[in-house]
Amino acid sequence: MLNKDLNKGEIMKLYDNPTANHPRIVRMVLAEKNISDVEIVTIDLMKGEHKTPEYRAIAPNSRVPALKLDDGTVIIESSAICRYLECLYPEPNLFGESPMEIASIEMWRARIHNELMLPLAQGFRHLHPAMAGMEDQNKEFGESSKKIGIKSLKYFNGALAESEFVAGDRYTFADIQMITTTDFFIKLNRIDLADYPEIARHIKLMSDRTSFKA
Prior knowledge:
Order of helices and strands: EHEHEEHHHHH
Radius of gyration: 18 Å
Strand order of the largest sheet: 2-1-3-4
Structural class: alpha+beta
Shape: globular
């Protein structure tokens, strides 16, 4: 990766977890924009490091990722972090250029997050045995959420049949939102990807990019 000046000498610290999907969103943006001057601090979620007083002083919501600037300012929430990075490093553009493209990317990002990621995440958190120690699991809620997520998978599979990428004719942040959702939660919810050929095609398309491995 090329080294770049971070906002006139600014050094950023990213609180990360290598197995969670939201931090991966930020890592993919860092990779797409070739940003390397970021210190990565791993937070072990299974050990509860995100709930310690030390980390809560950084991120009051006890979640990752969090981006800490050298003046002590902290940005939480993956999309907010990525928009900040887009302002610092506008190329390659990931959030849109024209008003219509900006609106389209944000629309698809929000829809994927709310209609697909959230229900699949709740299905995983409330049904998967590995989450029993971290979640007060409610099987009925988990099954209901998973059912909503599967319905959304069918919808987005149809939407991807109409376009190579999620929000138009090029790679954008909407594709990052999609791939971090599908690559993570389809397997964890034990859903058969073969039932969604256009989503499988999109996963293959994304997996050919260097940022996929971030």
